[in-house]
Design a protein that fits this description.
The chain is of the alpha+beta class. It has two helices and three strands; from the N terminus they run αβββα. It has a three-stranded antiparallel beta sheet with strand order 1-2-3. The protein is globular.
């Protein structure tokens, strides 16, 4: 079995889309997106919690995508990191007016 180096373009599109979403969420006058808007079902996150950022972590070949939700944006309380799945990302891109392609 031969080992092939990881292509530098692996999941580059996903990472670019994550950067675009994060830029929209953190821009002045950004649209407020809540946990309820994305149908996030996590007992740690109230439906009114605002999504304050999106990031990825893990291996670039298959990154885990998380959203940061804050009950009160700008408060000193740490945001809750919640895994975001394809349906969440599709809805988030739609709400932000971004033409992204998520999933296979």
């Amino acid at each position: 079995m031969t080992h092939h180096p990881l292509s530098s373009t692996t999941h580059t599109l996903d990472m670019l889309q994550i950067d675009q979403i994060d830029a929209r969420l953190t821009a002045p006058g950004a649209l407020a997106v809540t946990a309820a808007d994305l149908a996030v079902a996590d007992p740690r996150v109230p439906p009114t919690a605002r999504l304050t950022g999106v990031h990825w972590r893990g291996a670039p070949e298959f990154p885990d995508i998380h959203g940061d939700f804050a009950a009160v944006p700008g408060s000193p309380d740490a945001p809750v990191h919640v895994p975001l799945h394809t349906a969440h990302l599709q809805e988030l891109s739609r709400r932000l007016g971004l033409h992204h392609h998520w999933g296979v």
